[in-house]
């Protein structure tokens, strides 16, 4: 996501703060995480590893402060709606763990048009920022994840191999 934002907003500083010492989870190869880090840096994304944001502040655990106009908080595979619940319980869909979001990705509330939600936490059915594809082909295994970098680039790890942009671009289509 940081790469996609950086490829559109060239003049803005984009920072990605991650609590681990590398991108993605440990189950992905070092080649994959190194390629993602390299391409992110080429898009001038500032990668900050082994840090955590202090709750609701743009201050890192080491005291580093980051000024920004927009913040995107992501906390793993399970949609984390706690921040939005604290902000306004009415923004959470009944019987769901999804945030009410306009098609523009803004929160669905007139008082919070300056706050955006992205990815699995939104109630937008077509949210395709990170795609998990399930295949039945044995050679690919049961689950394959494609990581988009920007409009024309993505990585697709298959076992210990990382497929460059050609195959993922065909999967992504023109929408991503």
From TrEMBL:
GO terms for molecular function: electron-transferring-flavoprotein dehydrogenase activity; flavin adenine dinucleotide binding. The keyword ATP-binding does not apply. Keywords: FAD, Flavoprotein, Oxidoreductase. One of its GO terms (cellular component) is cytoplasm. Residues 11-125 form the FAD/NAD(P)-binding domain. Pfam families: Pyr_redox_2. The keyword Flavoprotein applies. Belongs to the FAD-dependent oxidoreductase family. This is 13041_t:CDS:1. It comes from Dentiscutata erythropus.
């Amino acid at each position: 996501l940081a790469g996609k934002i950086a490829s559109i907003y060239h003049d803005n500083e984009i920072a990605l703060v991650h609590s681990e010492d590398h991108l993605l989870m440990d189950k992905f190869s070092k080649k994959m995480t190194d390629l993602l880090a390299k391409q992110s840096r080429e898009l001038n994304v500032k990668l900050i590893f082994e840090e955590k944001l202090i709750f609701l502040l743009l201050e890192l655990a080491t005291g580093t402060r980051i000024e920004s106009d927009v913040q995107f908080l992501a906390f793993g595979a399970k949609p984390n709606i706690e921040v939005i619940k604290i902000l306004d319980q009415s923004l959470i869909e009944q019987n769901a763990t999804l945030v009410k979001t306009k098609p523009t990705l803004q929160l669905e509330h007139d008082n919070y048009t300056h706050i955006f939600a992205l990815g699995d936490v939104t109630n937008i059915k077509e949210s395709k920022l990170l795609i998990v594809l399930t295949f039945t082909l044995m050679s690919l295994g049961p689950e394959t994840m494609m990581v988009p970098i920007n409009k024309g680039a993505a990585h697709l790890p298959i076992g210990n191999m990382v497929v460059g942009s050609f195959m993922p671009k065909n999967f992504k289509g023109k929408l991503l």
